[in-house]
Amino acid sequence: MDEKRNYSKIIVLLLSLLSSFLLMLTCLFQWSLMDIVTPFLMPFVWLCVFCIFLTTLIVSLGFLVKRKSWKPFLIHMISILLYFFFPFTQLMINLDFAVNREERQEVLQLIESEKISPNVSYNNSIIHLPEKYQHLSKGGGDILIEDNGQEVFFFTFRGILDNFSGFIYSSYDQEPQNEDFGGDYKEVKRIDKNWYWVSSY
C-alpha cells in the first residue's frame, strides 16, 4: 500500500514538473511558435497548455489536501508566479538582439553598399532577404526600409494588419515615430545605440 502511495506521489510530481515546464517553454517561445502555427492557431496552443496545467494543478491540490504532499502544488504556485511576474518577452527580445546583432549589421552593410535592395514587386520598401539571413526577420524573412535604407525594420512578430513588433535600426539614432513604417506604436524601447524595439499591438 505504501509502495503504491509513493508511486502515485512520484507520478503526480512528474506531471506537475512536466506541465509547469511546458507552460514556461510556451511563455519563452510563444512568438516563435506563433510564427510557426500562425496567430489564428496560437490561442488553441495556449488553450491546450492551460488545460494540461490546470488539470495537474487540481490533482496536486487534491494531493495536498488528502495526502499532505505539498511539492507538486508548490511547483504549480512557483510556475504561476513566474507566469505573471517574470519578463519572458523582454528576456527573449534581449536574447534575440544579442545573438543576431552581428548578422543584422551585415544586412545593414549590404543595404548601404546596394548589394541588396527592394525586390518585391508590390512594395518598393520591402526587401526579401537572402536565405542566409531570413531567420533575422520573422514572418517570411522580409525587412522594411525607409529613407533610402537609413531606417530598417526587422520583424520579431509579423501579425495581421497593423499588429507587429520588431527591431528598428535608425542611422540618425532617433526614436521611431508613429508614421515610421506605418506603425501605431504602443511600446518603443531603446535597445542600444541606433537600435529600438517597437510594438504596435
UniProtKB/TrEMBL annotation:
Domain of life: Bacteria
Alphabetized UniProt keyword annotations: Membrane, Transmembrane, Transmembrane helix
Keyword Transmembrane helix carried by entry: yes
Transmembrane segments: 12-32, 44-65, 72-93
Name of the molecule in the record: Uncharacterized protein
Species for this entry: Paenibacillus oryzisoli
